[in-house]
Design brief:
18 helices, eight-stranded mixed β-sheet, 5 domains, about 650 residues, Molybdopterin biosynthesis moeA protein, domain 3, six-stranded mixed β-sheet, about 25% helix, Molybdenum Cofactor Biosythetic Enzyme, Chain A, Molybdopterin biosynthesis moea protein, domain 2, alpha+beta, homodimer
Chain lengths: ~650, ~650
């Protein structure tokens, strides 16, 4: 073991890094690779040169109407008083829309203006001017006319026009081939059996999807172990057969972070370390005149670096504009502390409450892919900004459709697995609505309701004095608002322990045992309030509970800690315990309800939420979980 | 021949037609078809049910840092004055980010905070709290947690999270299969040889692209002739094997418009005739419980009906929101007369001039596919609106990217094929810029400049008195503005006649011959002004010129009329004559320049336009065409 790690990366600005990159590859980008494709296969592709029509459309003088073709001179003088009689095949022929107008005919009379006399003859009451109701050759496209310019993205109607102009093949920019190289001894394929110490390769498959989405071609290599020579050979091979090489992981400065050394050995490192967060340990290099991008292994970092570095580079190859997302302004719901030294990408949950768009920051862990899944948008916080205060406006790049965000029911408060069930049922009932939950604990929900940031706040708050749930907290914290409670469910709370209960835990008093490691919930959660209440009742001092300081934010994470053995016991709901296959020691039933400001009760989305709570489907779904009972779910109690 | 055509279609509102349709197919839409796919293949697909994690991620307690794993208790008491020495394998192990934290270790110290002593020992100067720098099991995803809800469109990071959650396959909505049936005796395939009376089938291939774009699957049938029984059999077959059937053409009320009768025979016609323009003769029907949509054959009508009727229906099958386009407000550049009885879709050219977005209506012919290719957006004009005045604001659904529109050089004025050449060169020079030309003749360009609707106006206007081009017109019409002229090209004007010159035309005086049919340009075009000037010189009366009233708007359309034999001669530029393989009788050289308001000269896009005119590439391209010479191209002359 030695300590000679290169822990000093540069901290170059993202825009400078991109500029350096594009300058370096200006030559590669000058003369694009192209291919000739059947027009049918060119949807979304980019033209190389301008395309000109080979033939005119229409290709002949065509009738624009159903009617008769005539010689205009023959009709002169016809009017309401002096009709002219025309003889078939001599003075006129019947034609339909699209039929050829042949010599000597030079005009069309609509069938509605023709008076039928007999099989042989018709009468007209109006003169017909030359070329009337005739689509002349080339009315749409004239041979040799420009149809689509160079570097133009082909649309469905471009395809139609090209075909009409006699073009069946065109030259388009070749999709650049992007090599995707996952590395890491711990990496396994999603199809393999997971075991301790192993990590499923998700980054490379996310990159395949991102590559497809932007219009390039992905060439994924199998994951390889952290072996300098192996990775070197793989990179060398990839730079020969692809247009851009993306290597995942090993880009930082750890013992097995070989990528920068390999690039130095085979070519040149242009940038190592970019002032972005997450994503700092990114590398931009060149080998065999091919760009090689080193992307950090943490999934969110990987996403940001691909989006900010690899996608703009691919766009250059495709001569496409960088795909920009819609930007909205939203009001920040809580203070956001930011990094002074980095441009920071903060995933945000958005909700439209009382006509205002409210943004709440999500987990900032670089390893939390769910923060991207749950995010509605990303706030990009400039460096040199220390933080942004709650109530200030932030600009947010949207990841989801703004209509969907505007139609979503915002729920901030306590966590329960039934929130996922309700979310599914809401969308199934009306696909334009959705339920978007943030889990900050019951008291957090009450505070969000006070600040007007949420429609509903799921809570289960026990009043120590009265033993009654929820009402006293509303009276205390939300007395200035008109609040109702929508009845939710009753659920069992209890201790979750490993199967077989190896520490023989009987109840809460056992938390004081020296050999018992507890895992706690965060302050402000209803479960924590319940715990502290019960501990006080028992006269149990928190200083004597090992693990009391370790806080988790959901029931599932507590259950998970117990399952993994990092704790012996946690307090939580039965459904979470059952879901994780744990043993459950019940300590009682509590009421999990939804506080709501009355002004939202008339909104359609809230009506649907209440309908779902009242539905039989919801009752059926609860039966599949364990530890719930319902009584008056969906009933509104005013306070 | 008989007259019993069903010429009476209904005129139901589009919204009512859609409502009727969706109501009719509510049953078909209730229980969607699904399929199970590998997660990798689900980008952009819609989930059926909610998907929950099978395993936690991380799957084990993992180090979040490079450093050493320790037992937190062993570190208590360490501080700057009292360092604690730890022994390898006994008190600590070296670990990298992602490594498993195994019992008894419960804490990680960053390598930066570790003091190396020797191979066996390190020192620490700070206590380490339990679970510090450890990513607990399930930090990202806890087993059984919701990853994506039902009816959710899969994104690249959804794929990553699903894989991390141990999901390798999910159930998604099956892409509905859309049968596309082109009909018409005159229809040929794009690959076939075109001949008089034939029309290339472009609609069905446009529909394939539109179907793909929206996320469904196209099943195109070969075109069939207008034979009642044949079409009936084809439709019957298609309704059995597809989810939605789209029949092209034959939907109106002509002699061979069989579709409504066939649907009546096999099933039910729900709607025939919708109050939209273009697109009125659309049919919505049902056969074998499958929706069948009859789409008119004119390409623009076909596009509108597919977009407005078929796409929303497909969206319902996909449980996707109807794809809405971005809407902008623009100032109408000229009066728009609208249909009182129909909702009208008017293709619009947009340009950003002096910070205002200006909209100019394009050709409204239902057969002009190029009006879609050239359009930047579509204005949807409500029925019961007679017209909209110039200067009023209209809402426009964008077909192209607004940034592209904002960066486009707007040119309104005379037509010349070199405008296409310049357009290509501008984009090649800087892909964010483009040149967008509208051809309204030289005087039309001057008027657009006066109204502030264009950056440049290509003109070639001869002053009859002085014989000097362009300047006198600017002095006359644009005296209130500061106008410069950017020198363009000199080009030859002359008479275009069929190869071999069968009517033996020697010069303009021959236009007076009785057996010579002329084709003219529109009033206000420079070529028309030249013609009228020359005719006056010759004392030739327009009443004696056959075809003087027939006006075309471009040189290419004049050439096309001569080539097709519908005229014997036209006046135009040599490059157009050569492009169409005609014989050319020169009558002289003229100056084709660009008027510009000085305030635009400092704009980057105009600088690029001028650079292109001055470039060698432009000079080279001109040499490939015939009839041009340059001298000082790109030079700015102030007036």
């Amino acid at each position: 073991m030695n300590f000679d790690r290169n822990i000093y990366l540069t901290n170059i600005d993202l825009s400078d890094a991109k500029e350096k990159m594009l300058k370096k590859f200006a030559v590669q980008l000058q003369e694009p690779k192209t291919e000739v494709l059947a027009v049918d296969d060119t949807l979304g592709r980019i033209t190389y040169k301008s395309v000109f029509a080979k033939i005119s459309s229409p290709y002949f003088n065509a009738s624009a109407m159903d009617g008769i073709a005539v010689t205009s001179k023959r009709t002169f003088g016809a009017d309401e008083r002096n009709s002219i009689t025309l003889r078939i095949n001599q003075d006129f022929v019947y034609i339909d829309t699209g039929d050829v107008i042949k010599n000597p005919f030079d005009s069309v009379i609509m069938i509605e203006d023709v008076v039928y006399v007999d099989e042989e003859r018709v009468k007209i009451n109006k003169a017909s001017s030359p070329w009337q109701h005739i689509r002349p050759i080339g009315e749409d496209i004239v041979a040799s006319e420009l149809i689509v310019p160079s570097y133009h993205e082909i649309s469905p109607f471009d395809i139609a026009s090209l075909l009409c102009g006699g073009i069946t093949e065109i030259e388009v920019l070749k999709k650049p081939l992007i090599a995707i190289l996952p590395t890491g001894t711990e990496i396994i394929e999603a199809e393999d059996k997971i075991e301790e110490g192993k990590i499923i390769d998700s980054n490379s498959r996310m990159f395949i999807a991102m590559t497809k989405q932007i219009g390039a071609k992905a060439n994924r290599y199998k994951p390889i172990v952290d072996d300098y020579e192996l990775i070197k050979q793989r990179i060398l091979e990839a730079t020969k057969n692809n247009d851009i090489v993306v290597v995942i992981a090993g880009t930082s400065a750890g013992r097995e972070d070989y990528i920068s050394s390999i690039i130095k050995e085979l070519g040149e490192v242009i940038v190592h370390g970019i002032a972005i967060k997450p994503g700092k340990p990114a590398i931009i290099g060149v080998i065999n005149e091919k760009p090689i991008i080193g992307v950090p292994g943490y999934p969110v970092s990987a996403y940001i670096v691909f989006k900010q570095i690899v996608e703009p580079l691919i766009s250059e190859y495709l001569r496409a504009k960088e795909q920009k997302r819609e930007v909205v302004e939203a009001i920040l719901s809580r203070r956001l502390v930011s990094s002074l030294k980095h441009l920071e990408f903060v995933r945000m949950k958005l909700g439209s409450v009382s006509g205002k768009l409210i943004a709440t920051p999500l987990s900032r862990g670089a390893g939390v892919t769910m923060s991207l899944v749950k995010a509605d948008g990303v706030a990009i916080i400039d460096k040199n900004i220390e933080g942004i205060e709650a109530g200030e406006t932030v600009k947010i790049e949207l990841l989801k459709d703004i209509d969907m965000i505007n139609n979503s029911i915002v729920s901030i408060g306590s966590h329960d697995v039934i929130m996922d069930v309700i979310a599914s049922l809401v969308t199934e009932q009306d696909k334009q609505y959705s339920l978007s939950s943030a889990h900050v604990g019951s008291l957090g929900g009450i505070m969000a309701m006070k600040r007007g940031e949420t429609h509903i706040a799921p809570i289960h708050l026990l009043d120590e004095k009265t033993g009654v749930y929820n009402i006293s907290y509303i009276n205390k914290y939300l007395k200035k608002q008109n609040i109702s409670i929508i009845k939710g469910v009753k659920r069992e709370q209890g201790l979750m322990v490993e199967k077989g209960n190896p520490k023989n835990i009987k109840g809460l008093s056992d938390l004081g045992n020296d050999d018992v490691v507890f895992v706690n919930r965060q302050k402000g959660s209803g479960t924590r309030i319940l715990l502290d209440y019960k501990m006080k009742e028992l006269g149990l001092d928190s200083a004597n509970v090992v693990g009391y300081e370790r806080e988790m934010t959901t029931h599932m994470m507590v259950a998970s800690a117990v399952l993994s053995g990092s704790a012996d016991v946690g307090l939580g709901i039965k459904s979470a315990s059952t879901a994780m296959g744990l043993e459950f020691i019940s300590i009682g039933e509590e009421e999990y309800d939804f506080a709501i400001d009355d002004k939202f009760l008339k909104e359609e989305r809230i009506k649907i939420f209440i309908d779902v709570l009242k539905s039989n489907t919801f009752a059926d779904e609860l039966k599949k979980l364990e530890g719930y009972s319902i009584e008056n779910a969906g009933k509104i109690n005013k306070y």
